[in-house]
């Protein structure tokens, strides 16, 4: 899942990307997606997130609103200024090996690169996630390589309009 709508870099953030928080609209949109996520039974067993405020806030809202029983963990390797390769190489296989459903909350282009790696074996397949959209990928291990196939792709707008 990509984080919700965040504030623009400003004097408050020192014109930096890292400290940007969710806007009130971003928070409202996440709340409005929850009924559809419940109806679709997209309740993860655990969540891993970028520690950047806009992603962390998104992950916290999802964790609380969906009453996720498992952990909410923050990984520096999911930061917006990071390559997705260290997360892919160091953290994904253990998440898959634990079994169950997990959600990764982060940023573009990292999340589209992760999906591309899983689905195509390369990071440049041209997948894009709009703010607060969700890709559902079924992941598995083949030897010591993580792979997956795309099950669904929902935008925030589609999930908010979903009739429960």
Folded structure, characterized:
- With 164 residues, the chain is of the alpha/beta class.
- It has a single domain (24-161), classed as Phosphoglycerate mutase-like (Rossmann fold).
- Helices cover 36% and strands 18% of the residues.
- It has helices at 24-39, 53-65, 85-90, 92-98, 110-120, 156-161; strands at residues 46-49, 72-74, 102-105, 134-142, 145-154.
- It has a 3-stranded parallel β-sheet, with helices on one face. A two-stranded antiparallel ribbon has the order 4-5.
- α1 (24-39) packs parallel to α2 (53-65).
- The longest helix has 16 residues, at 24-39.
- It is globular and about 45 Å long.
- The two termini are 21 Å apart.
- The relative contact order is 0.19.
Helical content stands at 25-40%
Secondary-structure element pattern, one letter each: HEHEHHEHEEH
Total tally of structural domains: 1
Q: Kindly, what is the distance between the CA atoms of the first and last residues, rounded to a whole number of angstroms?
A: 21 Å
Calculate Rg over CA atoms: 15 Å
What attributes does this structure have?
Rossmann fold, 6 helices, 5 strands
What would a concise description of this structure say?
The protein has 164 residues and is an alpha/beta fold.
Set out the fold topology.
Elements: H1 24-39, E1 46-49, H2 53-65, E2 72-74, H3 85-90, H4 92-98, E3 102-105, H5 110-120, E4 134-142, E5 145-154, H6 156-161
Parallel strand pairs: 1-2, 1-3
Antiparallel strand pairs: 4-5
Helix pairs in contact: 1-2
């Amino acid at each position: 899942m990509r984080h919700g709508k965040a504030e623009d870099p400003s004097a408050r953030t020192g014109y930096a990307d890292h400290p940007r928080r969710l806007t009130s609209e971003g928070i409202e949109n996440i709340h409005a997606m929850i009924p559809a996520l419940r109806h679709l039974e997209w309740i993860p067993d655990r969540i891993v997130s970028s520690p950047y405020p806009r992603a962390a806030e998104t992950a916290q809202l999802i964790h609380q609103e969906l009453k996720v029983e498992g952990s909410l963990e923050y990984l520096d390797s999911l930061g917006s200024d990071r390559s997705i390769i260290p997360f892919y190489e160091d953290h994904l296989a253990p998440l898959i090996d634990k079994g169950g459903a997990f959600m990764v909350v982060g940023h573009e282009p990292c999340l589209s690169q992760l999906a591309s790696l899983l689905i195509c074996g390369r990071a440049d397949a041209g997948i894009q996630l709009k703010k607060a959209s969700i890709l559902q990928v079924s992941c598995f291990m083949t030897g010591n390589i993580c792979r997956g196939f795309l099950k669904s792709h929902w935008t925030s707008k589609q999930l908010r309009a979903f009739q429960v």
